[in-house]
Amino acid sequence: MDVRSLGKNPRLLLMALLLLAILLPWLPMGGSTNYILRILTTAILYMILAMGLNIVPGFTGLLDLGYVGFYGIGAYTSGLLAIHYDMSLWLILPLAAINGAIWGILLGAPTLRLTGDYFAIVTFGFSELVVLVIRNELWLTRGPMGLPGISPPAIFGHPLTRDWEFYYLILILLLIVLVVVTRLQDSRVGRAWFAIREDETAAQCCGVNLIRYKVTAFAISASIGAMAGAFYAKWFKFIHPDMFKFWESILILCLIVFGGMGSIVGTMLGALILIPLSEVLRAVLPQGLFSARYLIYGLVLVLMMRWRPEGLIPFEWAQARKALLSKERLGL
Amino acid sequence: MVNGITLGGVYALIAVGYTMVYGVIQLINFAHGEIYMLGAFLAYTMVTVFGLPFLAAFVITLLICSCFGIILDFIAYRPLRKAPRLAALITAIGMSIFLQNLALMIWGSQIKAYPRDVLPEIFFQAAWNLGDVTLSWLQVFILLITVISMAILHIVIHRTRIGTAMRAVSQDKTTAALMGIGVNRVISFTFAVGSAMGAMAGILVGLYYNAIFPTMGYIAGIKAFAAAVLGGIGSVPGAMLGGGVLGIAEVMGAGYISSEYRDGISYAVMIAVILFKPSGLIGRPIGEKA
Predict the structure, then answer these.
(1) Where do the structural domains in chain B lie, given as residue ranges?
(2) B215 — contact with chain A (CB < 8 Å)?
(3) CATH number at residue A62
């Protein structure tokens, strides 16, 4: 298995990848640099979303079908704050994250008592209601006309306009989220989540406060989603209710199922493979069939569950490495 | 009000499929809405492309969709019967999206309508006029079919051998298997009946609204699920009651509160029921199953 060689020096590998990511805008790629950067920015955006969603089904074992609701809340928070109050990005990002977390707690506190299936359905209903409210409350969101003219983010008074600037911005966001999620995974909170995922009753018997930890997971997941939405609004400068439909939730779910539910590396890889794939499909498929690209995502979900439910890079990877180390130590 | 009841009848027909499958294998079959959509499209294709008479198309569609339900269970859900429920749920969503986009590829995204001459003209005339309330023969027909098929289903579940087997499996699969019941055969039968009901609803809606499109299954499926939850999941009369209540609530809500939130009313009703009375109106209480 090449897991061993990968596992031997994960830090070195991470550094190499980071270096590649930083140097990327300056590599000679002919005229298509900006195009590639835009695709990569999208892919990284979805990496963040996938990492955020992963906390709920991956870490805690609850199916969340309404993640895009929080993404939409974040995007509209960001767009409205930017248009009406002309706030800077550095204020908007935390505010959007807080707003996402508030909605996550409001939705999570009453519903997380439910069993898995019902919870999935309620989250679905929630995200549909978010879209309906955005579409119909014209005074606030301009409804189906969308929200155009969001000002670009600025750093020290210098507005970001170029593709590589946004690429670096999202890269920084990715690193922040990555550090936060990894630290959470290895913390006491993370261990409580895994205990809940493996066996709720056993976790409760060990003194894990089920509701509190589930709501925490849901709120953190929601705030990451909202933050990604805030970036999206500032990047795309136009948001529309149709951008936050149910399909987006499925797409993000598909990313983590494909990459490996519960595994941070896996979810990132899932986004890095599947998001550019949709660009490839856009180029290959004829115009009319492009809308049917979700066929492939549906198929990915079914096939992965049937033959490789643990995903490309399973979560057990970490444990397997630990087991290996202890075996080596014992001289086996 | 009358529209509400008709709509409710259709929701009830779809909801029965959810309820039966959930009762037997505790799985929310998200792909059920897609079978409803496929039913509408298959009947449409048979009537327009092959020129079959409507009644023949109706019957053949029901048969095909029953087989389809069995195949769906066989290839997608059966291998996962022992897997965690999350896996089966994700598979169900995947199947739903796959089928919906398959339909999109085959039939295109344009809204299609049944030719008007599939039914005798009398269906579009008013059956009764009570003041400003009109009841068309089509509505009577839909309600009649709903009630009859529900009655037959009720008899099948409570009076026949296979129905008894179904109830046994829904209570305890292992014990049922030990008593000599072919559990997989019963599950296949459940999928077949549920899918036939769903397909029937699809055709009726296609006639009623005169519009079929590939994404129709997704919204109707969720609403029917809401109806099933409202009535009490796992209970067939509950599905019928839930469908009726939801249909009326939706039409009334659209009329008196706000037509923009028409779909929102179903979701809100569903969330409220799940939160405050997850066993539904007449369902049996459900335990916390991990």
Answers:
(1) 2-89+137-276
(2) no
(3) 1.10.3470
